[in-house]
Structure prediction request, 935 residues.
Amino acid sequence: MTEDLSPAERYAASRKRAAEQATALASFREMYDFGLDPFQIEACQALEDGKGVLVAAPTGSGKTIVGEFAVHLALLQGKKCFYTTPIKALSNQKYQDLAKRYGSDKVGLLTGDNSVNSDAPIVVMTTEVLRNMLYAGSRALLGLGYVVMDEVHYLSDRFRGAVWEEVIIHLQESVTLVSLSATVSNAEEFGDWLDTVRGDTQVIVSEHRPVPLFQHVLAGRRMYDLFEEGEGHKKAVNPDLTRMARMEASRPSYQDRRRGRSLREADRERERRRRSRIWTPGRPEVIDRLDAEGLLPAITFIFSRAACEAAVQQCLYAGLRLNDEEARATVRSIVEERTASIPDEDLHVLGYYEWLEGLERGIAAHHAGMLPTFKEVVEELFVKGLVKAVFATETLALGINMPARSVVLEKLVKWNGEQHADITPGEYTQLTGRAGRRGIDVEGHAVVLWQRGFSPEHLAGLAGTRTYPLRSSFKPSYNMAVNLVEQFGRHRSRELLETSFAQFQADRSVVGISRQVQKNEEGLEGYRQSMTCHLGDFDAYARLRRELKDRETELAKQGAAQRRVQAAAALEKLKPGDVIHVPTGKFAGLALVLDPGLPAGRSNGHRGFESHDGPRPLVLTAERQVKRLASIDFPVPVEALERMRIPKSFNARSPQSRRDLASALRTKAGHIVPDRHKKGRAPAADDREIARLRAELRAHPCHGCAEREDHARWAERYHRLKRDTAQLERRIEGRTNTIARTFDRIVKLLTEMDYLRGDEVTEHGKRLARLYGELDLLASECLRDGVWEGLDPAELAACVSALVFEARVGDDALAPKLPAGRAKAALGEMVRTWGRLDALEEDFRISQTEGVGQREPDLGFAWAAYQWASGKGLDEVLREAEMPAGDFVRWCKQVIDVLGQIAAAAPTEGSTVAKNARKAVDGLLRGVVAYSSVG
Prediction:
């Protein structure tokens, strides 16, 4: 091919090859034994050109290669690179990967729990750690050249998402930002914002999955493809699944059968045949089936920790064995090595032997309630192919490198913290993205289990919608406010907050509304010209007409309400046996009252009808129908025309009883002609306001215009459009500067409490600046008021636990057990302090529903923290706490984190809090809590 080129072209091609080989990307590519994908090359080239990048690509596509290239560039240029992740487990995993590639001397880790080689040129950390470093002005930021934000789509998270935006906004301009995201539908919008706040940013979007994903539904003994094979991009839902869903929907439900709707023998036989084909297979059956099809290893997502553990037990009881003897021995060796530091008595408490039995058989659970060490062992064994079936909660989908051949979803509904809700297309994409191991599998498989009420079309919608929008959850906090004011002053801080992605999105949404307002204003001008009258001001005349109409409508409503009250009062006087005439409706005519239907009443054997709409009498009509009437059937008052005795033997369900009583009714009262209800004088006839308006209308010059009604139609259109425009303008006002207005309210409250004085941060404010967390202001107030003075370390740990703990159960839980004495008194004072802050927030219109403000402290972990810090054994603490080991460890580590902040923020003179906070950390950081999660 080169022989066909001219000497000049060959020389140019040679120069190009030499230039490419001289790039950092060329040396980086040599470190991998596989070629890079086009989107990875494009992103790496943009980075080498000095641009920031946003890479949005499916899970498992290799986005992290771009992040690792940033690490490579930093080392080549003698700069630092911080690699941030949303969760500690992912930070730990990334630390291991980078340390293996570049050497442990060049890589550090900072997660709040762990600090390893923090001065290294490459440091892996959670995003919160970097945010805290930015606010503290840490010296570690000197020489920082690159920041990689892995899983940046986490900024949609309503609890923690604001941290990502804080970091992006506050990083030095000289730092190059590498943002790695799942596939989102508004990547360009997010990229535009990054371009605004960070400078030149290239957006690289890839929809391509390196391993194709096939979707299936497992129903009974058969695995169905979700989509029918066909030509073109548009996939049709498998007609077999649609037919099965239709057949099941037509099957009578259990409730139908309970109502006595018996099935014919043929229907029963048909149902038996259907049931023999369609059922939800059990968990051991699913794993067995996947094993037979060669679809292991598999991750089964179950949105419940307890169900994950139960699934493992079910598989063990069913006798499933996925490992041979050699694999079992290897598993035991790895597990014993990784858990050697855990004492035998703790192993028993942690359910070690049952867990090991599952691992040896190739089966395990994975969820946040597990001990971190146990979770890491499961991850390691799964990657090595020694665990082939994992039952996991959705936390596993968040970036942890555990790819599988197949992913199974038991249900398409999960608990979102407030209610059971359908999983979103984004969540479905994230979960199923684990299926298909690059370089190992030719294809990945997503399997959804058949459930009653299953809709193939709904699943196809989830599977076909590959993207979801990124929505900001950014909200200012007290800590953020004092840190910003200290660094930039109030005015500049307000400007900075207005550069947030939240405000960027709000402003963009306003653009369309503003355009509509502009169109409306043009329309208003046209309407104004069309309603112009040569005799006078038609706008004023139209206003008089509207006022008259509004007054007439108001009086009509008052009259109707009065008639309804009179009708309801008349109904309340009815008794069983009254003969009435129903004035209107489907059952108008003669009727006998069987039950007056008073709220919660019971009369003559008929149950009263509970209703907020007044009485609902049960009547027998002259046509033998027994009906419960409503207030709508009685627009005017009704009274008894006659009285009749209702036989005690009367049965409303018996046609004969109804026929006999209806006949007696016609005989008794059929000849009576009811009095016609006389309408009273209309209120409008005597209303002075209406009389005044009518007089003004007649006196107005425009009243005599020949085109008056034509002008009036244009005036009505003008009025309606003006009202709609005002509504749009209110929406614009509500969305403009929303973040800054919230910041203003926070600043006013902090000024009231003497944390701020104009642009000056007081001593109290400087203390608040060191306290991060949801209850930052409450913690600061407790230090200020000396609530924790005189507490010993264990008592202080109990009190601080209330700042971080949030129970998983509802408000109906039993009152938690608390340590006695000083700790109990201090906890009570903390709740009272929160009550005072809550009232103050209400005064300043700071609302928790908007994600701002202080929630009530939760005392549910106080006893466990106190016991553990006092030196009690793990068995006793976990038994009394009724809490999984993983949760216990996680809450202890969060308490340790806040205790560290308190030790740094508390006054050093005349106070024991700082010293006891450090002692409390030592008391908590032992046993299972101290086991390092970094190997």
